[in-house]
Amino acid sequence: MNALLALLMRDIRLSTRVGGGALMGALFFLILVVMMPFALGPDLALLGRIGPATLWLGALLASLLALDRLFATDYEDGSLDLLMMGRMPLELAVATKAVAHWLTTALPLVIITPILGLMLNVELSAMGWLALTLLAGTPALTFIGLIGAALSVTLRRGGLLLAVLVLPLTIPVLIFGVAAANAAIAGPAPFGPPFTIVCALSLGSLVLGPFAAAAALRHGLE
Amino acid sequence: MQIRGENLSCSRGGRGVFAGLNFSLSSGEALLVTGRNGAGKSSLLRMIAGLICISAGQVEVTGGAEDAPLAEQTHYLGHQDALKPSLSVAENLGFWAAYFGALPDAVEPALEAVDLAGLADLPAAYLSAGQRRRLAIARLIAAPRPLWLLDEPTSALDEPSQKRLAELMRGHLAGGGMIIAAAHGPIGLDRAREIKLGQS
Amino acid sequence: MAVIDLANPTRFLTLVNRVLPWLVAATALAFAFGLIRVAYAPDDYQQGATVKIMFLHVPAAWLGMMGWGVMTIAALGTLVWRHPLADVAGKAAAPIGAAFTFICLVTGSLWGRPTWGTYWVWDARLTSVLVLFLLYLGVLALYWTAEDPGRGSRAAAILALVGAVNIPIIKFSVEWWNTLHQPASIIRSGGAAIDASILIPLLIMALAFTLLFFTLHLAAMRNEILRRRVRNMRLMQATGA
Fold it and tell me: pTM of the predicted model, to two decimals?
C-alpha cells in the first residue's frame, strides 16, 4: 500500500511540475473545441446539436495524445525496469499510473466541460449531465488507451501508432457516452441505459486495461 | 542463500549471444562477468533480474525468501539511473525506497553513504553524471535486498567515488549479500570469481 | 505425424509442401463447382443479377471474422503455450483476414450503389466490418513498425486478444447506435428467408473461400519461415560467426 501511494504521488507530482503536461490535456481540449465553430460556422443551433459529440471527441483525442508519455519517460530513463521488480504486481503498478494520469489529465477536462459547453450552446440544465457522462467515460478512455501506450512504447513508436491502435477500441465508449449526453439534453430517449453501459465499460476496462498493458510490457521488454 | 544458473542461453533479435552458461553463487560471494561489447553481459544480468525471458536453462534460488521470486530479492543497477529530473534528490530516492518497501528514515543514511546528503533538496536535473550514478547506487543502500546486479557500476564515477562503491560492495558481501557485476575490468571486488563471455 | 512434430519448422515445411498442391486443387475444384451453381442461381426479383455480389460479399465477411479467430488462437499459442510456429501463423493470417475484410467492404459498397443509390451507408453491419478493418490495420501497423520481429509478433498477439474481447462489444455498440440513429433498416441482404437455390451456392462458395484462406495461409506461413531463415543467415554473415 505504501508503494502504491508512493507511485501515485510520484506520478501526480511529475505531471504537475514544470514539464509535466498536466494541464496540457485541458488546454488541447479547449483549443480543439474552439476550432469546431471555425470549421462549421457560428450557427448556434447546429453547434448545440453536435455539442456533446464535439466535447466527447475532444476529450477522446486529448486523452489519447497525453497517453503517449505515460510509459515513454519511464522506459527511456530505466524506471520501467525497476517498476517491474517491486513487490507490487505489474498490473497494479500500471493501474496506479493510469489512475494518476486520469487525475491529472482527464479530470481537468471534465472540470472545464461546462465552460466549453456554454460556448457550444449546450443547454444549461444539461451541463451537469454532460460532465457526468465524461466523468464516467474518461476512465474507460484512459484504461483502454493504456493498452495502446504499453504496446507502442515497447516498439519505440510514438503517438500516431497509439492512436491507430486505440481509437477503434474506444468506439463503444464514444457511442454510448454521446448517446447518454444527448439523452440528457434532448430526450426522449432515457439517460439510464446508455449511462450504465458507459459505467460498465469503464469498470470493465479497469480490469482489462492493466492486464493487457502489463502483458504487453512484459513481453515487449524481452 | 544460493543462486545457481544452469545451461543458460540467450538470443537477442534472433541472433544467439551465448549458450550453455553455468554459474553458482552463495551468500557473501561475488561474481564478475567480463567480455567484449555485445558478448551478452547486460543480457545475462537482465535475465537474472527477470526482465528478459529465459529461453533455455534456468536460474535456481535456494534459501532466501522462499515465496518471493528472484526479481523481488534483487537490485538491478543498469546503464540508466532511473532518475526524474524534476524531482529533488531526496524525492527521487524517497520514491524508490518506498516502492521497494523501505522506511522513510532509510533515505538520509543512504544519501550519506554516497556523500550526497548535502544536495538532498536539489532537483536531480542539476546533478552531474557521477552524482546521478551515486544517487542510483544509494537506492541499493536504502532498501536492502540480498542480490545486487550491477551493470558497469563504475562508469561515470571518479576515483573517490569508486573507492566508496568498493567499500559499499564489501559491506554488502560481509552482511551475507551477493553481487553479480558486469564490467570491462576490475571494479574493486577483491575476491570475485570471474566469468568471461564471448568465448565459444 | 504427431501435432508436436509440427512445431519443428523444417518438418512443417515438408508437410506444407506435400499438402499444398492438394489444397490448391481442392480450392480450384470448389470454386469451379461453386461458380457454376452461382451462374444458375436465380436473380432477385428486385435487384436483378447484382444480388450475386452476395456470393462474394458474404463469404468475405465470414472469412474476415475467421481471420481474426485464427489470429486469436495463434496469439494464445504465442503468449500462453509458447508454440514456436504460433507467431508465424498469426503474422500470416493478418494480411489475409484484412484483405477479405476489405473485399467485403468494397463489394458491399459496389452492391449498395445500384441497390440503395449510394456507395456507402452507415448501417450496422457495414460499419462493424469497417471497424474490424481498422482493427486489422492496427495489427498490421504493429507488424510493420517493429524492428524486432519477435517483439512485433508478441505485441500483435496481445492486440489480437484484446480485439477478440472487444469485437463483440463493438458489434453490439454499433448495432445499438444504428437503431438509435436509423429510422428503418435498409439492408435486407439475401432476403428474409434464404431459399435453398441461394443457400446452397452460398455455402459452396463459403467453402471454396475457406479453402482459399487456408491455402493462402499455409503458403504465407511457408514464406514467413523462409524469410526468417534468410534474415538469420544475413545476421550470421554480419557477425562473422
Answer: 0.87
